[in-house]
């Protein structure tokens, strides 16, 4: 009997741990629900106030409107429904001590995971895609993002983050101040060299890590480098030349290397045929354009 | 007869063209990979493939998209059976008995049963698409603007209620936010700019595809990378020989029929995905089984019921999509977005102007089902080899695909910003236990709700009376009121009290 109790004890402990964890998560959620409901209430007030500025009667821009034809009708309906829904969540959460629970668990919030995963993607979209050559932007993003999660080493991660976000800060300063645009006017695609420098730094740091950590790390780093380079190298030509989708920004690699190579050596040559067109036909052709 | 001709003609067209066969098998295989890889979903697969199908004609695009959808729903069972980690939410119920079967050394049998059950589910779903879609579309032709508005509202409310069981109101908030997003830009009747904040990029409203990719793709990538999820080791040899096991299938005929009906029925409810269909049919199979105690310990019935329901749900989700233009599941939302890009607007008018569309879709579903079965029986070991690629290596590549996919459809960098912002909002929604399905359904159905409400009011001179005057709209109004009232505590308590009093009185009378 005693042995049975002993053997059940760890399982019971595990069960109670799970239960405690669940309760904790529930408490956190109630706290967050309270804050969320406040955001919903504010958002609904914004929708309602904004929709009330839309024409509900009279003539605007030559169009006579009655309340039931108003463009603000649905937004007003949505805003009102959101307000009621927000109020309901707020009331429910408040009766369960939502605000107190939020304050209690606020210090436990650790945004590192979100800032790294979300920050990586957002900076890729808003900085790299907007201002740099798509190939280079994707290459650097993949080097950083795969390196961060796949190699999963704290010291390496810190160095990767420093280099990546350093580049982001430099880019933001350069382009928002107008220096970047000026530099690109002076020398074509000059700013793309920033990403090349960033890529070289990231690769150097990874290679140092590989040398320090041995065989397994070398294999992993090699994999990161190959995938980061090969993936955009396949993706860009596929979209650019097969699906005829121009890249968001074409610079040092896409414009100078890929486009030049493709249109000089690989693209099907334009065939010019001699045609005996009459004057009328030539005139119609001219008119068409 | 004409329907059969179109159906067989479409099948002949698919299977006589090497290119279409390659597209079919390739998309199905890709779908299986997306379904099998935890973190990737059938919806994301459809979203990313949409970009590549933009240059194709609508029939070929539909073939590729339906094949990846069918493959994606099926693929989830790979890791569910082998590792007890469901590749998609839909296959979570399959893991209940699939994993114990694999543990007993019956992985090959479990795979065979799951694959054949999925094929049966797919065929049943396809049959219902062919039979029900034209009928519902016929009824829908009688709908007035109010009915369309109520239908959109019903779709968002029911999807919000069922995908957010903890607190349905949170699901509704997600749906309302989705409708609000759809109101951004110039309205379709008076061209009045709404919520554009002076940004000309917003004048034409927001593109659906970047919103869908942002909502389904970005948070998924972030969550998987944050969790640093690592899959256990999978050995292709452990799979053994794949057996269809027709004898077991035949013994479970009743279970198969019940699960197929459950799958189709749940699939037809707007916004409800395969996961709910699988769990409900698993519950029914367990309740009606002669040996319920075997469930959870490796009962083949559990695997059969969930897989049949999963795939039948695909067909079910296509029914409201084709007949009403209302998507039945999250991947169907994406499919609707893709069809819109190809200038195909599903709904009763499409079926009236192009009656061949339903038999064509049915034939594509049939072909996709066959391709799924063939891929499942022949290429399973290859899938397992691919699944060994760590997620941390795979997910960043998906992020790049999301970016180029969102950009390629409109060639607007603004779409990428939109995708990023929606992605971050969706991430917080998921963290706060708010479902994403109602949000995207709101975005899709918002324009219909807006136009239908205002047109209806204009037609009736501002009177809401016709909403309760017509039987269909009255039924919809009553259902909507019931859904809303079920979430208001004091009304809920009052109804329960009334029911218990009636029950007590009836008990007293007898």
From TrEMBL, chain A:
Species for this entry: Pseudovibrio exalbescens
Record keywords: Membrane, Transmembrane, Transmembrane helix
Protein origin, superkingdom: Bacteria
Organism lineage: Bacteria, Pseudomonadati, Pseudomonadota, Alphaproteobacteria, Hyphomicrobiales
Name used for this protein in its record: Uncharacterized protein
Membrane-spanning ranges: 29-52, 72-91, 112-129, 135-151, 163-183, 189-211, 223-243
From TrEMBL, chain B:
Domain of life, per lineage: Bacteria
Pfam families per the UniProt record, alphabetical: TctA
UniProt keyword list: Membrane, Transmembrane, Transmembrane helix
Native species: Pseudovibrio exalbescens
Residues passing through the membrane, by range: 62-83, 110-133, 139-160, 167-185, 205-225, 321-341, 361-380, 392-408, 414-430, 437-457, 472-495
Name by which UniProt lists this protein: Transporter
Keyword Transmembrane helix attributed: yes
InterPro entries documented for this protein: DUF112_TM (IPR002823)
Domain DUF112: 21-441
């Amino acid at each position: 009997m005693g042995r049975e109790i002993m053997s059940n004890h760890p399982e019971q402990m595990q069960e109670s741990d799970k239960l405690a964890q669940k309760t904790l998560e529930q408490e956190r959620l109630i706290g967050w629900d309270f804050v969320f409901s406040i955001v919903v209430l504010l958002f609904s007030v914004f929708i309602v106030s904004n929709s009330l500025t839309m024409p509900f009667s009279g003539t605007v821009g030559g169009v006579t409107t009655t309340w039931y034809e108003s463009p603000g009708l649905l937004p007003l309906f949505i805003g009102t429904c959101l307000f009621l829904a927000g109020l309901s969540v707020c009331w429910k959460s408040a009766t369960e001590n939502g605000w107190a629970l939020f304050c209690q668990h606020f210090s436990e919030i650790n945004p590192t995971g979100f800032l790294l995963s979300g920050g990586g993607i957002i900076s890729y979209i808003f900085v790299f895609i907007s201002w740099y050559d798509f190939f280079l932007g994707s290459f650097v993003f993949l080097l950083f993002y795969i390196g961060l999660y796949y190699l999963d080493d704290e010291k390496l991660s810190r160095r990767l983050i420093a280099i990546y976000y350093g580049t982001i800060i430099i880019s933001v300063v350069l382009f928002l101040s107008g220096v970047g645009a000026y530099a690109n006017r002076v020398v074509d695609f000059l700013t793309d060299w920033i990403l090349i420098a960033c890529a070289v730094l990231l690769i150097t740091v990874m290679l140092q890590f590989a040398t320090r950590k041995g065989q397994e790390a070398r294999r992993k780093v090699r994999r990161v480098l190959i995938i980061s380079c090969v993936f955009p190298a396949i993706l860009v030509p596929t979209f650019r030349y097969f699906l005829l989708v121009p890249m968001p920004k074409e610079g040092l690699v896409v414009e100078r290397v890929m486009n030049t190579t493709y249109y000089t050596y690989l693209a099907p040559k334009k065939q010019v045929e001699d045609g005996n067109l009459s004057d009328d036909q030539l005139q119609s052709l001219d008119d068409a354009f | 007869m004409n329907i059969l001709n179109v159906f067989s003609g479409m099948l002949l067209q698919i299977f006589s063209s090497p290119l279409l066969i390659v597209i079919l098998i390739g998309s199905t295989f890709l779908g299986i990979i997306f379904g099998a890889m935890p973190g990737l979903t059938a919806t994301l697969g459809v979203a990313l493939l949409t970009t590549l199908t933009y240059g194709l004609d609508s029939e070929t695009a539909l073939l590729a998209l339906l094949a990846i959808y069918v493959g994606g729903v099926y693929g989830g069972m790979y890791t569910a059976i082998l590792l007890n980690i469901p590749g998609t939410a839909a296959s979570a119920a399959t893991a209940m008995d699939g994993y114990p079967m694999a543990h007993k050394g019956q992985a090959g049998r479990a795979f065979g049963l799951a694959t054949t059950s999925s094929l049966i589910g797919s065929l049943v779903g396809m049959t219902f698409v062919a039979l029900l879609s034209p009928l519902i579309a016929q009824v829908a032709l009688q709908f007035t603007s109010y009915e369309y508005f109520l239908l959109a509202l019903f779709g968002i409310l029911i999807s919000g209620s069922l995908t957010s069981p903890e607190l349905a109101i949170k699901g509704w908030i997600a749906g309302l936010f989705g409708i609000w997003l759809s109101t951004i830009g110039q309205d379709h009747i008076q061209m009045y700019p709404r919520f554009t904040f002076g940004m000309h990029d917003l004048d034409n409203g927001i593109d659906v595809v970047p919103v869908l990719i942002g909502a389904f793709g970005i948070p998924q990538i972030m969550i998987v990378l944050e969790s640093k999820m690592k899959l256990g080791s999978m050995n292709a040899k452990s799979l053994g020989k794949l057996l269809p096991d027709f004898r077991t299938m035949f013994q479970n005929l009743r279970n198969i029929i019940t699960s197929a009906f459950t799958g189709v029925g749940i699939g037809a409810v707007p916004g409800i995905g395969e996961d709910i269909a699988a769990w409900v049919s698993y519950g029914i199979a367990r309740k009606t089984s002669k040996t319920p105690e075997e469930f959870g310990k490796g009962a083949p019935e559990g695997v059969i019921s969930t897989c049949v329901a999963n795939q039948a749900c695909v067909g079910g989700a296509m029914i409201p999509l084709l007949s009403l233009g209302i998507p039945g599941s999250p991947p169907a939302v994406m499919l609707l977005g893709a069809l819109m890009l190809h200038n195909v607007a599903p709904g009763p008018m499409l079926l009236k102007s192009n009656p061949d569309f339903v038999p064509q879709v049915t034939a594509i579903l049939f072909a996709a089902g066959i391709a799924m079965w063939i891929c499942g029986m022949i290429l399973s070991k290859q899938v397992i080899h691919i699944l060994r690629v760590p997620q941390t290596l795979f997910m960043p590549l998906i992020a790049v695909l999301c970016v180029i996919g969102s950009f390629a459809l409109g060639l607007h960098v603004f779409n990428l910003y939109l995708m990023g912002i929606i992605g971050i909002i969706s991430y917080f929604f998921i963290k706060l236990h708010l479902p994403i399905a109602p949000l995207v359904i709101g975005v899709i159905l918002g324009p219909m709700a807006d136009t239908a409400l205002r047109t209806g009011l204009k037609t009736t001179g501002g009177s809401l009376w016709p909403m309760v005057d017509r039987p269909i709209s009255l039924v919809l109004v009553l259902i909507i009121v019931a859904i809303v009232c079920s979430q208001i505590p004091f009304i809920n308590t009052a109804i329960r009290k009334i029911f218990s009093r009636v029950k007590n009185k009836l008990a007293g009378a007898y």
